[in-house]
């Protein structure tokens, strides 16, 4: 039979293990930590909101990828973008949307405190894509400028 002190000690151990798992296994954004995206990613071209608009106008075949999760996308997304959360991004899923490695693609997420588009951009680079654009400030800047969203 386990006494009260032994049970309390086991519960504390279990709680500590659960907390450790949550902070190490979950992405930082899911664990409640704020991520700061890097300023630049090697082999990737940064653009701001106006740069995105210019690219859409001047770059036929540009593929816009929304790297956010579905719940974020329900709050609005940039017209013409496809949903491909970073957690689902790999060479196969990118290839299903963008079969040619030299086709231009632009990735965005929630902004500088969201690492999803940075993560996806690194994956695209690893897969061999050569014309990668990154809207680092993402939805944060898009909303601040009151640019249109699709809901």
Which structural traits does this protein have?
5 strands; alpha/beta; globular; Oxidized Rhodanese, domain 1; 151 residues; five-stranded parallel beta sheet; 41% helix; single chain
How is this structure best described in words?
By secondary structure, the protein is α/β, with parallel strands linked by helices. The protein folds into two domains: 1-33; 44-144, Oxidized Rhodanese, domain 1 (3-Layer(aba) Sandwich), CATH 3.40.250. Helices cover 41% and strands 11% of the residues. A five-stranded parallel β-sheet has the order 1-5-4-2-3, sandwiched between helices. Strand 2, helix 3 (70-73) and strand 3 form a beta-alpha-beta unit. The termini are far apart. Mean pLDDT is 85; it is low at 13-33.
Outline the fold blueprint.
Elements: H1 4-25, E1 44-46, H2 49-58, E2 63-66, H3 70-73, E3 82-83, H4 91-97, E4 105-108, H5 116-127, E5 132-135, H6 138-144
């Amino acid at each position: 039979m386990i006494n009260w002190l032994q049970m309390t000690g086991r519960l504390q151990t279990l709680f500590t293990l659960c907390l450790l798992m949550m902070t190490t296994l979950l992405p930082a954004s899911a664990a409640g930590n704020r991520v700061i995206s890097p300023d630049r990613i090697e082999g990737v071209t940064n653009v701001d909101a106006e740069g995105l608009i210019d690219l859409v106008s001047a770059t036929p075949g540009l593929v816009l990828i929304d790297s956010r999760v579905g719940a974020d996308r329900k709050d609005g997304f940039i017209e013409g973008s496809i949903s491909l959360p970073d957690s689902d991004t790999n060479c196969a899923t990118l290839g299903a949307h963008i079969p040619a490695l030299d086709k231009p693609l632009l990735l965005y997420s929630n902004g500088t405190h969201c690492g999803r588009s940075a993560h996806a951009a690194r994956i695209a680079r690893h897969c061999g894509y050569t014309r990668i654009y990154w809207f680092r400030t993402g939805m944060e800047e898009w909303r601040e400028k009151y640019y249109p969203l699709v809901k």
